[in-house]
Amino acid sequence: MTSLARRVVARFLQADQPPGARQDAKHLTHPVNKPRGIALDIVREHGRGVADPHEETVKPDRRDIRPEDVFAGTPDQMGVRNFAETGKDLSKALDRQVPRDKGYDTVSNLSQYLIRTEGGGGTPPVG
How far apart are CA 84 and CA 109, in angstroms? Predict the structure, then answer.
């Protein structure tokens, strides 16, 4: 049995993903707000593997969970590449776009709340 045939058999044995599993994985791992100030091509390519033309691979099933579904790109991972390719840094996004994101007010106030209450919300710590 060739290595390609073994890979096909292994893929069929492991590919028992229920319908909608890719969307569920993406929903659970990606942030609510999209990355700001980063070129769309860089965001789309994040988490995708580079194809090796000499490798024998089986085309993945459309229901298989792929790395790009699970690994969400963050600005600290893509910011340097964005600056090198486009010449734009993230200063505009941090100053103007990020404060408009959904939930930004809650998160920015949450850190101050936890500092003022020592993380307990007015109750004594457990233990």
Answer: 33
